[in-house]
TrEMBL record:
One of its GO terms (molecular function) is 1-acylglycerol-3-phosphate O-acyltransferase activity. Residues 88-159 form the Acyltransferase C-terminal domain. Belongs to the 1-acyl-sn-glycerol-3-phosphate acyltransferase family. This is 1-acyl-sn-glycerol-3-phosphate acyltransferase gamma. GO terms for cellular component: endoplasmic reticulum. It comes from Thamnophis sirtalis. The keyword Membrane applies. Signal peptide: none annotated. GO terms for biological process: phospholipid biosynthetic process. InterPro entries: Acyltransf_C. Keywords: Acyltransferase, Lipid biosynthesis, Lipid metabolism, Membrane, Phospholipid biosynthesis, Phospholipid metabolism, Transferase, Transmembrane, Transmembrane helix. The keyword Lipid biosynthesis applies.
Length: 221
């Protein structure tokens, strides 16, 4: 609450990202979430978890007058691909479609219960959007394809060259020395760093994610 109040006085433009489902989608979490929806008399969702309304309603109340609108974003990757950081690291190409809808903040009810009801309705609409995308392969409404931005790539290449040049220089010096022991130690170091990085990135995969939202896990504990 105090953090949101400080954001209300933030002097610059800002974006506040809020993931109302609270955790990543898995079949187990979805089943448990729909059991909760049934017990509360809420409509079941096919492609989403039940949104957690408290954080949303609190943010709306605290940031009203500061934030002008809520943007609902639904993202889908083409070909039913599940992107990962490892896939990006290996150079895999992913194409995505995004549906963005804007809701002025004054259109969201002030009352906490009514704002929670509004959020549940929004997620029902998101579920219908997802179902339509699965059937037709695109979102309804006006289509927009952003242009390519070559300067972004050039900026990345420039800073990569600046930051990695000392490492390349060091590696070149190792190989130029002709010492088999130094070369072997350097290759082992590079291999260990590469292996460790991949292991750390692998932890972010969905099936290795947290048990947050999984009531069965808590019962077992």
């Amino acid at each position: 609450m105090e953090g949101l109040k400080r954001l209300a006085d933030y002097p610059e433009y800002m974006w506040f990202l809020l993931y109302c489902e609270g955790t990543r989608f898995t079949e187990t979490k979805h089943r448990i979430s729909m059991e909760v929806a049934e017990s509360k008399g809420l409509p079941k969702l096919k492609h989403h978890l039940l949104p957690r309304t408290k954080g949303f309603t609190t943010a709306v109340q605290c940031l009203r007058g500061t934030v002008s609108a809520v943007y609902d974003v639904t993202l889908n990757f083409r070909g039913n691909k599940n992107p990962s950081l490892l896939g990006i690291l290996y150079g895999k190409k992913y194409e995505a479609d995004m549906c963005v809808r804007r809701f002025p903040l004054e259109d969201i009810p002030l009352d906490e219960k009514e704002a929670a009801k509004w959020l549940h309705t929004l997620y029902q609409e998101k579920d219908a959007l997802q179902e339509k995308y699965n059937q037709e392969g695109l979102f309804p409404g006006q289509q927009f394809k952003p242009p390519r931005r070559p300067w972004t790539l050039l900026n990345f290449l420039f800073w990569a060259a600046v930051l990695l040049s000392p490492l390349f220089k060091f590696g070149f010096g190792i190989f130029a020395s002709g010492s088999p022991l130094l070369i072997l130690a350097f290759l082992c170091f590079v291999g260990a760093v590469s292996f460790g990085g991949r292991r750390l990135i692998g932890v972010t995969e969905i099936e290795k994610g947290s048990s947050y939202g999984n009531q069965e896990f808590k019962k077992k504990k």
